[in-house]
Amino acid sequence: MTEPTVYELSSPGRVGFKFPEPDVEEVALPIGFEREDLPLPEMSELEVVRHFTRLSQKNYAIDLGFYPLGSCTMKYNPKINEVAARLPGFAYTHPLQPEESVQGNLYLMYTLQEWLKEIGGFAGVTLMPAAGAQGEFTGALMIRKYHLDHGQPQRKRILIPDSAHGTNPATSAMIGLEVVPLPSDERGNIDLEALKLLVDDRLAGLMLTNPNTLGLFDENVQEVIRVVHEAGGLVYGDGANMNALLGVLRPGDIGIDVLHYNLHKTFSTPHGGGGPGSGPVAVNEKLLPYLPDCVVTIVEPGDDENPPLFGFYHPEKSIGRLKSFYGHFGVMVRAYAYIAMHSGAGLRDIAEKAVLNANYLMHKLKETYTLPYDRTCMHEFVLEGFWKDIPDVHAFDIAKRLMDFDFHPPTNYFPLIVKEALMIEPTETETLETLDRFVDVMIQIAEEARTNPQLLHDAPHNTPVRRADELKAAKELVVCCYPLEELQK
Ligand SMILES: *Cc1c(COP(=O)(O)O)cnc(C)c1O
Questions:
Q1: How far is ligand 1, taken at its centre, from the CA of residue 380, in Å?
Q2: Pick from 251, 412, 429: which is nearest to 338 by CA?
Q3: Tell me: the pLDDT tens digits for 134-193?
């Protein structure tokens, strides 16, 4: 059943909100700002509440069930984060307020920077990037500026493994770097011989996701980094998979020069509904002068009587601003609450349980599904979503059938180097009972693929929207519920 839109529910004259009497003088809007006809839906408050509550109940969410969407780290978002982010002193401040009046907010940002430096083993952090992809963009700009600054303008090549997330080549290309794909070897590591052939004085750097998107820790990572550094390149770390490393390995310690975090993945803030995210970027000493403008710092040290005074500094060779103001502050508050709640030992426990859960699922499922890279995984693993002897059942059918059992599908068809990939990331927040139920359902679906493949082709059977035409949804996306013919008038 399709839901009526707010326009279909609208009835002329119905009102859902009343403005208070103005306590300032009314002024006329500048010419051109006022419209004769503003086609807004007219509904009562109750109708609005019912409409959106009904829609929300048709959604799937981590708060409703298991969400093993590989690479996205859909862990539980503790509700204490929401309480913290809604504290009036955080929620009702404005970025243009004088710095003296937002010292608590600056303290929180400063402390978060310090923690992210410590967690990753780095010398400096910017909290400004809006998400991981903008963090990559930031890091690539800093790498480029570093080479220009060192009289190496010809260093424009960036090596990107064939298992990488699509944002890696996209952000590099956006700043004019030449993207060179790097093959993987049969164990899922970077192909060292291929790497050695690709490094020369045109090398700007390498973008490395470790553990990679196969969920595998690169067994030669030290050698990979050594080869890149020896050729004069820098190493960018895509930190989307930090959930596997927290408290176990600091990327800065093994020679990564710059790395983004995805606060909305590793540090638990709600995501998947379009944001906002946050993609802080951490750098070592080499890149410190190039950080975006500006960075939170202590401008006046405190003493026994007075707390320190927080403010901003402007890195001397900064790449400039990336967005308005200082980043997505509400996400920072949530990540701060999450890290504070766990502390150091708690963070390590997260990584250990995330890795344990993934290995548990991998071992339970590898008899039924093909596991192309059969070695200990990190926080996620990738199966093939097809069987050679059942040619018309695809990963897509398995994913859709899982929805009938109240599970969110795993990531599909990524990474590209695995045929019909099903990328499964359980995270540390699931119980053994949930993991076991998922295994049972996956095995049942494999059985159905043999005995009743039509059941899979027609799935999902009991969701509010049945199988969608995904090509049409992508090519003819309609995000406006206002009647099209009205808009075209
Ligand atoms: C999620 C992800 C990104 C992009 O991060 P966003 O925060 O979604 O912009 C990059 N690389 C990998 C491996 C990811 O999983």
A1: 15
A2: 429
A3: 999 999 999 999 999 999 999 999 999 999 999 999 999 999 999 999 999 999 999 999
Ligand 1 centre to CA of 299 (Å) is 34
| 136 touches 236 (CB < 8 A) | yes
Residues 425, 302: one domain?
no
Q: Please state the pTM of the whole predicted model.
A: 0.93
Which of 310, 340, 370 is at the close of a domain? 340
Which domain CATH number covers 374? 3.90.1150.10
Pick from 322, 340, 358: which residue ends a domain? 340
Question: Coil, strand or helix: which one is 184?
Answer: strand
Q: Are residues 356 and 445 in the same domain?
A: yes
Same domain, 323 and 460: no
In a domain, 52, yes or no: no
The binding-site residues of ligand 1, defined as CB within 6 angstroms of any ligand atom, are: 71, 131-133, 165, 167, 209, 213, 238, 240, 262, 277, 279
In a domain, residue 39? The reply is no
Query: Can you spell out the DSSP letters for 249-309?
Result: --GGGGT--EEE--HHHHT----SSS------EEE-GGGGGGPPS-EEEEEE---SSSPPE
Distance CA 365, CA 159 (A): 34
Q: Candidates 72, 167, 238, 261: which one to mutate for ligand 1, based on the most atoms within 8 Å of Cβ?
A: 167
Q: Are residues 111 and 167 in the same domain?
A: yes
- Identify whether the C-beta of residue 247 lies closer than 8 Å to the C-beta of residue 347: yes
Q: Say if residue 88 is in the same domain as residue 190.
A: yes
Residues 332 and 267 in one domain: yes
Judgement on whether residues 191 and 331 belong to the same structural domain of the protein: yes
Q: Which pLDDT belongs to residue 188?
A: 96
338 and 76 in contact (C-beta within 8 Å)?
Answer: no
Q: Which atom of ligand 1 is nearest to the CA of 134?
A: 9
Which tens digits make up the pLDDT trace of 389-438? 999 999 999 999 999 999 999 999 999 999 999 999 999 999 999 999 99
Residue in 164, 147, 40, 89 with CA at minimum distance from that of residue 329: 89
Q: Which atom of ligand 1 is nearest to the CA of 213?
A: 13
Q: Which domain holds residue 105?
A: 80-340
CA 246 to centroid of ligand 1, rounded, Å: 17
